[in-house]
Amino acid sequence: MSYSEFVQWDAFNKISPGGHERGDMQAALIAATTANAMSGRPGRRAKLQDFMLRFQTRVANTRDGVMRDVKGFFGNLRKKKSK
Length: 83
Fold this sequence. Notes:
Strand content: under 5%
Structural class: mainly alpha
Number of domains: 1
Number of helices: 3
Helix content: 55-70%
Oligomer: single chain
């Protein structure tokens, strides 16, 4: 896959999340709905965000940043293999 194609897929994923991100949203929706149904009190209602997993914020990828990450990853593999 070329770098250009990778950037296009990354941009598409940001517009229409799939996979893990969408699964996390679905699980959070089920958890919030269950919590609200089982709470038995009319106070604060659970929200979707209360159950969303929190990860580091994504940094915009630059060509140099991607190449640095790829070289670092393969450099570490080479070091482990030579041991």
